Amino acid sequence: MQNVLMLNPPLPLSFWSFHETLAMTGKKALLPPLGLLTVAALLPGDWNIRLVDLNVRPLVEADWDGIDLLLVTGMLVQRESLLALLAEAKARGIATAAGGAYPTTSPREVLDAGCDFLIQGEGETTIPEMVAALAAGRAGGTFVCADKPALAASPAPRFDLINPGDYESMSLQTSRGCPFACEFCDIVSLFGRTPRHKTPDQVLGELEAIRQLGFRGTVFVADDNFIGNRPRAVALLERIIEWQARHGEPFDFITQASVNLGQDIPLIDLLTAANFSYVFVGIESPDEDVLTAAHKLQNVRNPLLDSLRAINANGLSVIGSFILGMDGEKAGAGERMRAFAEAADLPWVMVNVLRALPLTALWDRLKAEGRLHDGIAESGWDALTNFTPLRPIETIFAEQVSALSALYAPGAYLGRVLRATLGMRPTRASMPGAAPKAKADPALAVAQKNRSPDFTPLLRLLWRQGVIGVARWQFWRQLALVAWRNPSRLRRYLVLCGMGENLFSFVRHIQAQAETRQSHPPCVPPSIIEPLPAVVPPTA
Q1: Measured between alpha carbons, how far is 425 from 440 in angstroms, rounded to an integer?
Q2: What is the pLDDT of residues 428-450, one digit of tens each?
């Protein structure tokens, strides 16, 4: 038997921090560490597992007591803390294991930090191999998932290891992989182009496990592309619709999907009937030549603006993502992204600076061109990305700051929220002749009736945006307009307004970064390719 300490490193301030939402709702973190919960389910049942999410609480000395093995995971943004945790465990003489996105794509740095057991790729294959190595008395090893394991055999995550009350949302995964091949994305290399999926019974079992914990609210469906296999998505949604009706609709959902969803209204209807409310869509650029060069071909097959409007109009709010710094991009790209978001009435958009990820086609191409940088810069302009873009990085960053500052000026943001809400069809339940919702079981109905609703987040929102907010009069006028013209979408309007608090705060952070970088002259990071010979000017 092993005594295992599983750690989820803290996440830095980012677009996804939602720290203002957490302050309004009293939660400690946005999402639980689904990867660690899945790994825990793959470990032997007699192992003693202690899980600490450092986004929920700090690590204390007692957490290390009696630990035989540290198991840590993380993404690139968690890099520094992940490496520090490995070093801390080694200093204590504790064996270490690391897996997840960053250890998979950057193994050398993780090994140098003191990782004994390196897990690369999906855990369904690699975790049993690590367990066998430990049983055989090995002190370390690297375990690589060479195939794409079937998810039908993947166990349900160990949701019992967390307190659901700590989290704003819960999460589960129904599939891995994406049928598209965007140059900058590592999904294909990590999880393949043929989506693999859990059975509907597995998914409903995980939903039931979350429900049994007492959680009610938003569940993030962490698929790479939920609609990557349409027949599978349809079959699963039909089962979720029935399950939701039977249990009184305890959950609403957020997921990720490609923009071709906008051409499939029947599928959108199934998503909304299952209580999906938001969908993350990678837009990347309004410029078709940039999208084509990046192999984002699904975004140019149909009018992009029309597809996004169709998704919103039929009941799904779009979370849009743009990327600055791609090859072929012309001056003013940031402003075109801002104008596109305004034209599409997208309240919730991110504008990122491109970073080349290992195991991607972009990484391989930039390396061949001698444009890829060696290592990760910690400060200065060169910390923004890890390659030499074709436009000055200072210009790209200035366009990012300008676009975000304009998008998240409170008045501009609230204007997009209003247009998106008024442009959305009413909920089916509010329409004349709508069929009544199926009744939940009597015991559940009693429990729901006796549960006191928590109005604290609403009151905090009304205070922030309706009393002290710089656009407070606009907020109240719009609230009245939505209540009059599209009352069934009033809750959606308020939630989107609340999201704005996170975005306003994040933009202030980006603006502060810009001020800091203005005081540091740009430097050129070293290339992993031998540099080109210097050009010596001719002498007279």
Answers
A1: 26
A2: 888 776 655 555 555 554 444 44
